[in-house]
Amino acid sequence: MKLSNKGRYGVRALFDIAFHNDGRPTQIREIAGREMIPARFLEQIFQDLKKAGILGAKRGPRGGYHLARPAAEITIGDVFRALEGPIVVCPAEDEGPRGAEPCGPDATAAAFKDLAVAIEKAFDDISIADVVRRGEALGLRRGESERVDFII
Q1: pLDDT tens figures, 28-44
Q2: Which H/E stretch holds residue 126?
Q3: CB neighbours of residue 82 within 10 Å
């Protein structure tokens, strides 16, 4: 399974807002610079996150995007579903060849359905606050523009 840049950038941007500004308004150019994400792409991502109720926006000189809910209440699953739709292991029945079960016979289909539930649970078990704590444990410093990668 390969995750798209859109989903990964969304998580990184929300981490940035939570880590560097405690969820308060942050301008796109600041996030884009720290996270090395193209600003135009980030604008598109933020529109989807705003529609999903994950981000809010404030206009004006001290404006920017902010978390609409506490970081502990936003999961990686929320972000991926908002940006990419449902987390799918098997295609819908109408996407497979005519008359074929998309995930194979009943036994394998059941195994893939269990896998889909486990993957979704794994995405929902990690919040943006958890990612912030991982950043702190790795020694990242707030307010610095230096980009340091870490694995979630």
Answers
A1: 999 999 999 999 999 99
A2: none
A3: 20
d(CA 75, CA 128): 6
The C-alpha R_g of the chain, in whole angstroms, comes to: 18
Cα 15 to Cα 30: distance, rounded to the nearest angstrom: 13
Q: For the chain, list the domains and their CATH numbers.
A: 5-137 (1.10.10.10)
Whole-model pTM? 0.82
Reference 28, options 19, 18, 16; nearest CA is 16
Question: What confidence tens digit (pLDDT) does each residue in 65-86 have?
Answer: 999 999 999 999 999 999 998 8
Return the number of other C-beta atoms located less than 10 Å from residue 22's C-beta: 13
Instruction: Give the whole-angstrom CA distance, residue 125 versus residue 91.
Output: 24
